[in-house]
Amino acid sequence: xxxxxxxQTTEKSSKSENFENIKQKAKLFxxxxxxxxxxxxxxxxxxxxxxxIKVEDSYQTVKTNVPVMLFTCFVALVIMALSAxxxxxxxxxxxxxxxxxxxxxxxxxxxxxxxxxxxLYPKINLRYSNTPGDEGKILDxxxxxxxxxxxxxxxxxxxxxxxxxxxxxxYIGQKLDEVQLNIQTLFAGQTKPLIILAKPEFKxxxxxxxxxxxxxxxxxxxxxxxxxxxxxxxxxxNFENTRPxxxxxxxxxxxxQSITRHKIIFDISGHKAENEEIPGTVVSQEEFxxxxxxxxxxxxxxxxxxxxxxDDNVYGIFEQKLQVYPYPVPMRLEATPSEGDSYxxxxxxxxGGDLTIxxxxxxxxxxxxxxxxKSAGKKVVN
Length: 382
What we know:
Elements: H1 2-64, H2 66-92, E1 97-99, H3 108-117, E2 121-129, E3 138-142, E4 148-150, E5 154-163, H4 176-186, E6 195-197, E7 201-203, E8 212-216, E9 227-234, E10 241-242, H5 252-261, E11 264-272, E12 281-285, E13 293-294, E14 297-305, E15 313-336, E16 343-362, E17 366-371, E18 374-380
């Protein structure tokens, strides 16, 4: 029992000592902490002063760099605005991809409506075709149907003008030269034209010269193979007869007026004036047994030409060989001096063949003959 009690007493004494040690350590730690806290509190004004100095330095730094910061912000805003604009126009407003519709074989009106729905624009080309009844229909397109393209793009359309000719046209009342030109243009490049004009028949009529009076086959005749068209053409009113004028003694200017007024072909020749002949005048003409002669009959006329110049003018006769026309065509002779403006010597009608016109112009003048406004001959007077 005594040993047990001693043991318990020893244990209690040991615990009491440990508790005292802990208590002493706690007091010591508290004193150190309190001392450290007092020191930190004492140094607090210095720390606050240091913080104020750092804040002031930072403020001065920011104040110094304000222009740089503002410029940097402005550049950033500009870049953002440009980027937004580019994205808007390339993505938001960019044309959408669309499917090109198939319009081949459709009437032009329907094709245009379909393209409009797809926001596509047409580019129209016209072409003749070989299929009757397809006039106004689409023969070809580019891009082809089913292609993917951007909206607002152009689509090329080839539109049929119909077959070149499927029936004989109505030529009555038209001018022969215009019909000949139209048919020539219509079948240009073809070895076998569908319409062939026979040599026309001419007769006097009250219609203007060259007007088509009759045709065979008639207008509307269907064409399945080449057809020859026969035409009857007017020679013009009062074609038949005219009274020969008196020309002897006329000057060059007088003779030019007679050529204009009378429906006679004057075959003019000349020789150097001799004896009592007056230079630059008509000295003889062909005589006829009847009072009236057929229009555009040829009449021989002789002129006496001066051996030199008169009033600085050279006298002579302009000569040109032309093709024979079925009726008189408009012609004119123009003079272009070496110095000065051009002028017309004479306007007249002539059926072609040998042509002679008197002139009196300065030396060096260029004479040009026009047949239906096309140059047919030229001469320089020396």
